[in-house]
């Protein structure tokens, strides 16, 4: 490791180089516009109030402009040394992962393993002061919170969203996508539980429902479906983001293990979300298909609640069908976004929709038979045979009943989800980027 004096000299040279690069009028001063440009180039995003606060701290003559010495005070190495000592609880001049995790626990926001991987350049398992300076020397008026925020901003997050924002984004996107295709979902359910799938016509069923039940009939069960989809999509989206944040995924490049890690994270997220919300899906399926029979909605609900175990009928094939579908679709879209970021390719809505739709169609082809089996188990309420026996013995025409409607449904559903989720995510990300730091500097 270089000596402290060598580190100081190098830091001073870097500060002067930044100052000269942004002193565009060669006035030996940085005005407010030049200062903001300098900070942005250093990866520091500040609002107007924060910029004024920084100026008050270092503008000794009150001119509103900063000379090189005043500019250097923004990045005083002494303050960074104080932060380093705060994290280095052992006082041995090295920060290990345990100390880093404990420090981050106070301010939150960054994964200790990820920070250690990026800052520990020599891969020694410890961060020395030289490495610490290289990572955080351009944090204005350095504090532990400011250093954490600076590093957090530098990590290319999947969505750059807070937990509540992923809940809203995933939930609303799920609701919008399912509402758009609710009439097709109604027809698909009828096809899947039909006693004679060979003679079933999706178009004829769609016209029958519209004629007999009216336009409201086309959306029968959609309110309950949305009540189930919102928490399912919200949990899946939020948990997936959290899991990806701690997975050993290289943020700077693409490696062979990344698709597997993303699919594993999406699988766990989908599994947890669907187990928690499965009873609502059973009720929705029964209300949708059995509406108009001798059973009233109230009686269907009462009968279902009287047999709680029946609300989990078909759970095994559900998990085997839904989890791979969500894993393939979510992981594919996210992998495309990360690859585009690494290779500096513009991520357009059309690209995301195409990637999601292709992945969705491929996944649906594989899992559709299991989807048919679970719908039969859900709607009939009693098992004529186990789902595994049904899967092996039902004819192919039954196992793929409704697959055409499913394919037609997948395109607008995926497109709507991608559009709504992308729009909300961009809005929240933009809001987060413009938000001033939450904790004032001491």
Automatic annotation (TrEMBL):
GO molecular-function terms, A-Z: calcium ion binding
Entry coiled-coil feature ranges: none
Report the family membership.
Belongs to the centrin family. Belongs to the mitochondrial carrier (TC 2.A.29) family.
Ranges for domain EF-hand come to 10-45, 75-110, 112-142
List keywords of the entry alphabetically.
Calcium, Membrane, Repeat, Transmembrane, Transmembrane helix, Transport
Q: What would be one Pfam family of this protein? A: Mito_carr
InterPro entries given in the database record: EF-hand-dom_pair, EF_Hand_1_Ca_BS, EF_hand_dom, MCP, MCP_dom_sf, MCP_transmembrane
Q: Which residues form the signal peptide?
A: none
Q: Which protein, by its recorded name, is this?
A: EF-hand domain-containing protein
Q: Does the keyword Membrane apply?
A: yes
Superkingdom of the source? Eukaryota
Indicate where this protein is primarily found: mitochondrion
Give the species. Answer: Chrysophaeum taylorii
* GO BP term, pick one: transmembrane transport
Q: Which GO terms describe its cellular component?
A: mitochondrial inner membrane
Subcellular localization, as worded in the UniProt entry: Mitochondrion inner membrane
